[in-house]
Amino acid sequence: MVHIPNQQPAQRSVPTSADVARLAGVSRATVSYVLNNTSAVRISEPTRRRVHDAARELGYVPHAAARSLRAGHSRMVLMPTSEIPMGLLFSTFFNELQWALSRLDYTVVQYASLGMTGEDAARAWAELRPVAVLAPDASALGPRGVTVLKRSGAKAVFTLGPQRVEGAHALLMDGRRVGRAAALHFLARGRRRIGAIVPTEAGLEMFWQPRVAGLRETVEATGTHGATVTELSLGYSEESAARLAARWRDLGVDAVFAYNDEYAMLLMRALQDEGIDVPGDTAVIGSDDLMLGRLLRPRLSTVRIDLPSGRSLAELVDRVVRDPGAEPEVHDVLGADVVHRESS
Amino acid sequence: MVHIPNQQPAQRSVPTSADVARLAGVSRATVSYVLNNTSAVRISEPTRRRVHDAARELGYVPHAAARSLRAGHSRMVLMPTSEIPMGLLFSTFFNELQWALSRLDYTVVQYASLGMTGEDAARAWAELRPVAVLAPDASALGPRGVTVLKRSGAKAVFTLGPQRVEGAHALLMDGRRVGRAAALHFLARGRRRIGAIVPTEAGLEMFWQPRVAGLRETVEATGTHGATVTELSLGYSEESAARLAARWRDLGVDAVFAYNDEYAMLLMRALQDEGIDVPGDTAVIGSDDLMLGRLLRPRLSTVRIDLPSGRSLAELVDRVVRDPGAEPEVHDVLGADVVHRESS
């Protein structure tokens, strides 16, 4: 009896560069040169075409990982994502930055760090071998995190936020400027007893703390007679706003910086429902210049925040990647101006 | 003369597992077993400790890429990011999903595709060798994109949005339900001449088209005598809203579905400024149930959108990764209910 081997259905496996080489009748090195567009090696056009055809036929995709293992680094820019939903201002800025980086041939990847901080977070990011990291929270990264990233081959580590960290370039977003702009606006209009809304929602500390600090510092620095700053807690709900409005007259504030436009809109409505005149009894100012603030009556005054163009930041990242030994740079990138409407 | 070689400053190079092996006095294989927590091989506690200490001292981080090259796949779940800023609803949903996936030991990475579609986008994603992909736009991915991803080793390809694509699992978010809910609400209240706001901003088609289609289909299906649907363009600016409001009386609509709450707030303000009574002359409804809609007078009616829990979706992803040969599943995941307030 003749033994006929079982015809197993072919196991559908992921095609490798060896498969491409076999089909194209060339070496694996040639496949690598062609698909990675290596200019150092001259390869004839027909061979190039044969490799591309074979790759297409097999559905072969080069492995970014393998490529970065060979090159020692990638073109990946890693940005840890925050769990705080980004407003329109930051979404627009990040979109622009991503486009600009992709035009410079970087791949932008956002990484969900989910509560990891410092070295733990840095190690998780480093596993992907990014060539650059843009971290939003310097305090969570820490100098040891920066070291981990650099030792894993990251050529540029930037922080993007209110704080600096040793060893990293800083795109400093100094939220104190927002509070300072609001304070100067109120003081110039004769307001003296200034409230500062502190949102009770977790995770917003890194935003409100510098704003309130800037407000307080400015009031103290001007030495205006009788000027005070009172912190007032507010949760983002109608109930919380109604509770705060109910004891408003006892607080004796004649102006309030409401953290941002959303909290300002919430508070202004509650004050009006309580019969408190805005801006007669209390001037209200928000920040972020949301379009919706213009729809209220009175129209909401706000502090407009200006961010740099994504393109200029992308060029900065690229420059540092090309010159990784340079001293850490600090760029002050946040502007703040009052848009005076009717509520203040 | 004695030649003294230049003392070059040591080139600070990225530490490798070979460096760790040398310092710990073990083989590279042992380093790999220890740092990848391979349970198949028994390694003594002191050896384990020696490897961990050496890795820490050198600042060595395993290369996710190298690990996935060995394993043939990663634990990476890749989600292409959209350029449209996500509302609070989707941000919350994605945060929950990311947490739930990370608890199942996946790493979630968002990838900026930036205008790439189909095979191009899929090839770019495939280079990172994700084990699963959650793509928000099925039509941009296409069946060939799904094939590229699967051939590169992705075990689970999901689409998350209004459309399906051959070969992928679908988490179907049928926006027609939003329009249907609004239509039934208006018809039940005797409104017949229904306007549907069409935002002029680019990139929103995938959201508004199904909503308007659902509105229209429902009005036609009920066969209500004299009921009509009129599409009305509106840009997200006060000028655009004022222009639309100025010709409102000529349009003869007695109800309007305003795409979402932000457009609804903008339109309602412009209608009120034009002396049109809401809801007397025109009923207005938005969607998304933003908190700010409750601050207006009249309070804005809205269609509340319900998404599934991130945890249940994470479990679904994990199940498919473990059983990649299973037939594509379709899950209808979007719920829509009217929250009736004062504007309708």
Can you walk through the features of this model?
Two copies of one chain form a homodimer. Chain A is α/β, with parallel strands linked by helices. The first copy, chain A, folds into three domains: 17-62, 434 Repressor (Amino-terminal Domain) (Orthogonal Bundle); 71-173 and 308-334, Rossmann fold; 176-306, Response regulator (Rossmann fold, 3-Layer(aba) Sandwich), CATH 3.40.50. Helix content of chain A is 43%, strand content 18%. The first copy, chain A, has helices spanning 17-24, 28-35, 45-58, 64-71, 88-103, 118-126, 138-151, 176-188, 205-222, 238-246, 248-251, 261-273, 310-322; strands at 76-81, 107-112, 132-135, 156-161, 169-172, 193-199, 228-234, 255-257, 283-287, 301-306, 330-332, 335-339. Chain A has a six-stranded parallel β-sheet. Chain A starts with 16 loop residues before the first helix and ends in a 5-residue tail after the last strand. At the A-B interface, helix 4, helix 5, strand 2, helix 6 and helix 7 of A face helix 4, helix 5, strand 2, helix 6 and helix 7 of B. Strand 2 of chain A pairs antiparallel with strand 2 (107-112) of chain B, so a sheet runs across the interface.
